[in-house]
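Exercise: predict the structure of this protein bound to zinc ion.
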Amino acid sequence: MRVAVDFFNQVNLLFGSITEFCTNESCPVMTAGPRYEYYWADGEKIKKPIKCTAPEYVEYLMDWIQSTLDDETIFPARVGMSSSSIHDMAFLLLPSAHSRSCPFLPLADVPFPKTFLPAIKKIMTRLFRVYAHIYYSHFSKIVDLGEEAHLNTCFKRTHAPGRSASLSLSLSLAR
Ligand SMILES: [Zn+2]
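Solution:
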């Protein structure tokens, strides 16, 4: 149940720790190994995917996550969610939300919008790209910083049998 929450926090933490090493110069393209290159598009402000550096991609992603959370057609304030902070997303990522029984949300009379789960999956997919970029491009720095254990633990947890398909790295890489 806490896997998604842990993952979100972990990605933020890990990227924060390597920010000074992940620059426009060191990472001129958002990649996850030699086979995967990611262009940014949010489908609204930027419809046609654009090539960007890794830090630019992460910035676009965090802005997009924030505005997605602020979109009341996806995450209505009425169901009790405060989306003013990006950290509030942790509560939205609880797997129990899949069964519409999230204890944080009084859902008895307010149904989830149909866009809720697709939005969560998209957020997770894109967060995985950041994780994959850190893994492939900054693994040695992570080791230097002594955060290797965190990186691996996070990876194993999210790939344990029975986890949601939306949490699959292979899925996120394939898109
Ligand atoms: Zn980088």
